[in-house]
């Protein structure tokens, strides 16, 4: 398992952000992703940065943990920045690196795009950090509800998603167990030529598939024994409710967007 | 092979919010040819310990030596494959690792990976099929056509085929019916002696630990709680109960006989029948100190 | 009054034309309020019986009656309302992403209103002592805890019979203990029938009646005491009696009278005490 990357990982807490309705978070992030592209001045970028950082702080997850968790993304961000330095040729020449001129426009553009990229990643990862996958599934089921009218199997899709989520840790454990068992029988997953390494996957994949099928079969039987007959006539325990804090959040976000347009140059 | 742990720590996912110390400051030494039972309730660190025995894990602190191989946090050992050839591990539900089209191929998989030649592999296959008590006719069948018990035997044959010097068994009898359990333990016991193996058995069955092991290590929350001869360790009922472990039935009944009837008999590996005779003699002896 | 809740009449079953018969012409009855243990070696057909009771499998020959209804395609959904089943693998029957969601699953299927659902979830988790874990995900639970959740899920739909299909086979001793305690409590509080399928004879001591299966046939129908007195025969069909019963057997073979076949330590000690005081 990769411990460094936090994208897609949920960190439990009881913060304001954690308690927001997942639909609120999804909708806000959706609009944030669009409006990031409207920022074009120092003030507007500053405003969005302030919004993102304070949201991150409001999750009560250590900022250092989040920043460190985005390490692989940092590499991309820095790469984008450098690429812009080299390619863009606007404004005046600031200085030269190995007789290669660096333009002021390149620094500004590069910084703006790197910052935009960073904000996008930060805010979207806040969703998964503060929302359990099952809440996201619920939210998607609700948001897709209108598609039921055109016979789109929304319930089945949501059930499939939630069962997959439920079994991800189980299958990860299983993968680890089988790969350890095969490593003990002399399989080398980590070194050697590419061809050998690809071959080494077979003794891992075959048992994994067999076990997944067996699980699926047993699960289907257990579901049937527990009275599952499809989505018709089912009630639901999980219910999503838009509360006051959600309205407050929407209002706050609207203010941020309004200010964004006021600070645009 | 002689095996020792020196002040070993192992931490999963260090420096994250999910950090978890599975074993801490664990030290023990096992002489070559010993049958060791590792007991402890779920989460006591048993499976972390055995994963060090063939280098699947390396300690985050301290040192593990298996014969001449040394595992330390500082450097990875180069000849890990050689270590794994000498230390065979039978994981829980080993039948889950079967994958080849025929049993023959599956058994040959390990020896092939460790570079044995065709001829030698053929000989080994015949030998291990006998050891695990499977008829040779099954060799050409798919492992997935077998019954659960047979599948497990085939998987074990695949580990034995490498001809290890150390055999690590992680609850090898889980899920088998009583006869299957007894046959399986008898098989490992026979192999232990005939092949002069050093055997590690992770088990929840105190009865098996008492019956087969020379040495028992009791783990609790990743540390060594006690170790010693099974017939001595299992007398410490109170302490074992504290770490949610039971003692073997035979010792339990002897304690109760002492407590309720005032007759003290000691357990020294006698059969149920011999025990019955001793009980009869003691009860009929006319000692009326009540 | 004793009422027959489950009846098997000359039932035979096989998994397909090319397979041997897994059950051969078996007949028995289970009463409401009864604790019945079905034991047998692996492959003796005992788990097949469980799946026939709630119609997960349908027999090729014979008839099965549950709660006065013959088990067939039309009745299975009604029958599943009164028959709850705990399977062997704790992982493969846990549908929900948390304990609460899992217990809810069966209730949602039956269209129970949300308010009542919450009430029933709380009550049934309380009954199995899992209230503190209500928001836990399955991978943070032990096998024993998952099985307790499975029992809670069944209690929530208030069935008339619970079938434990080797529900302890994959658990450690602690988990096994937890399950047997939970089952005991549940059995005492709610008046239901219990069918415990197992190969561990330590788990049958509290049963009212025991059905011993061998090679797809009912080999013996009796009570635990009688079963424990048949050491050799049981060993022949791949089962084993508990240590206490073995010791009692050896004692009586060398002339110590054991009048009442002991089921536990205390009963054996009483027998020994009787012998001792007569000397």
UniProtKB/TrEMBL annotation, chain A:
Its main location: membrane. It is a multi-pass membrane protein. The chain crosses the membrane at residues 26-53, 65-86, 98-123, 247-263. It is found in: Cell membrane. InterPro entries: ABC/ECF_trnsptr_transmembrane, EcfT. The keyword Secreted does not apply. Keywords: Cell membrane, Membrane, Transmembrane, Transmembrane helix, Transport. It comes from the Bacteria. Belongs to the energy-coupling factor EcfT family. Transmembrane (T) component of an energy-coupling factor (ECF) ABC-transporter complex. Unlike classic ABC transporters this ECF transporter provides the energy necessary to transport a number of different substrates. Forms a stable energy-coupling factor (ECF) transporter complex composed of 2 membrane-embedded substrate-binding proteins (S component), 2 ATP-binding proteins (A component) and 2 transmembrane proteins (T component). This is Energy-coupling factor transporter transmembrane protein EcfT. It comes from Aquibacillus rhizosphaerae. The lineage of its organism: Bacteria, Bacillati, Bacillota, Bacilli, Bacillales. The gene is ecfT.
Automatic annotation (TrEMBL), chain B:
Belongs to the ABC transporter superfamily. Energy-coupling factor EcfA family. InterPro entries: AAA+_ATPase, ABC_transporter-like_ATP-bd, ABC_transporter-like_CS, ABC_transpr_CbiO/EcfA_su, ECF_ABC_transporter_ATP-bd, EcfA2, P-loop_NTPase. It comes from the Bacteria. Its EC number is 7.-.-.-. Gene3D superfamilies: P-loop containing nucleotide triphosphate hydrolases (3.40.50.300). ATP-binding (A) component of a common energy-coupling factor (ECF) ABC-transporter complex. This is Energy-coupling factor transporter ATP-binding protein EcfA2. CDD domains: ABC_cobalt_CbiO_domain1 (cd03225). GO terms for molecular function: ATP binding. Forms a stable energy-coupling factor (ECF) transporter complex composed of 2 membrane-embedded substrate-binding proteins (S component), 2 ATP-binding proteins (A component) and 2 transmembrane proteins (T component). Its main location: membrane. SMART domains: AAA (SM00382). The keyword Membrane applies. Keywords: ATP-binding, Cell membrane, Membrane, Nucleotide-binding, Translocase, Transport. It is a peripheral membrane protein. It is found in: Cell membrane. Residues 3-246 form the ABC transporter domain.
Automatic annotation (TrEMBL), chain C:
It is found in: Cell membrane. Its main location: membrane. Residues 6-240 form the ABC transporter domain. It comes from the Bacteria. GO terms for molecular function: ATP binding. InterPro entries: AAA+_ATPase, ABC_transporter-like_ATP-bd, ABC_transporter-like_CS, ABC_transpr_CbiO/EcfA_su, ECF_ABC_transporter_ATP-bd, EcfA_1, P-loop_NTPase. Transmembrane segments: none annotated. CDD domains: ABC_cobalt_CbiO_domain1. PROSITE patterns: ABC_TRANSPORTER_1, ABC_TRANSPORTER_2. It is a peripheral membrane protein. Keywords: ATP-binding, Cell membrane, Membrane, Nucleotide-binding, Translocase, Transport. Belongs to the ABC transporter superfamily. PANTHER family: ENERGY-COUPLING FACTOR TRANSPORTER ATP-BINDING PROTEIN ECFA1, HEAVY METAL TRANSPORTER. This is Energy-coupling factor ABC transporter ATP-binding protein.
